[in-house]
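Q: Got a minute? One more chain.
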Amino acid sequence: MFVQGFDSGDAAPMPSAAFDVFRPHIDRIQPEHHFWHVRTPDDGEADIYANVTPGTFDSFMISRFSDGGPLDLLAEFTIRAGAVILAPGGPAMLTARTQREDLPDDFQRNAIVVRNGDDIRQALRTF
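A: Always. Here it is, folded:
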């Protein structure tokens, strides 16, 4: 899945400070590949690819994630960053209804609001 900020239909940077939600759970980094491996207390895992720079960064991809803690962290990140989750074949997942107007037109119609990891898990099961 991809995580991206939007403003007036265009990609927008996300605050790097929001990435701090993942930092206590990072157990492996490969900086040359912008790779971060996350392990949560419930033995959940996720691979994140992100070039997190001071101030803001553009987007990230999360893959090979388990159902539990990683999706809870993802939800917390998206709320802090005002970001949108884009899953291939699924609707854009917003964290606030007001984000809909900033999405590109193609994403607006089917967008849904998710507020936590459980909402993301449920959404992923529907497509």
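A: Residues 69-81 form the longest helix (13 residues).
Q: Perfect, thanks.
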